[in-house]
Write a structure and sequence with these properties.
By secondary structure, this protein is an alpha+beta fold. The chain contains 4 helices and 6 strands, in the order H-E-E-H-H-E-E-E-E-H. The chain has one domain. The protein is globular, with a radius of gyration of 20 Å.
Amino acid sequence: MPPAPRDPLRARRVAPALVAAIVALALDLVTKAWAWERLRDVDPIAVIDRVLYLEFSFNTGSAFGFMGESAYARPFFLAVTLVTVGFLSALLRPLPTARAYCFLSIRLVIGGPLGNAHDRVFRTLEIGGELRHGVIDWILVYYLPNTAWPNFNVADIALVIGIALLLPFLIFHADTERAAAASPAPQAG
């Protein structure tokens, strides 16, 4: 069986999406290094008073500190990240090329968790006399007076944007794209 012909549209979809994932990952790692050096031992810095602050926090769990005190949180979240990245990477190959934003969304959903996985592997901080692995979060937003969203980082932003872009594709286009890809091309005759 001859190899499938190269799809130039696929290359035009995958390349920019890959660049976006790399940029998101790099921006996350650079900003976390900055937060580690500049925010770790200082009071929160008001960017917009009562709305946006730069404040260091070290999350040993996942979103909202979930499983933060669990001894197996780190290996669990690393495994979830690896499975997710593997699954989404495999999903890119057969993905129909009609909607470019879908490629971008998947790459952002890959790039974000990789930034947090990097921290889970390499970042440690002494907490209560014990050296703990965790993720640097440094952005604090108050969405209501005296009510803050839990601290987050650039990886979290990339993940949320990626999911926000992926959901419309899954809701409105996934079935029609899959059906179009499965139906045989009309024969010239």
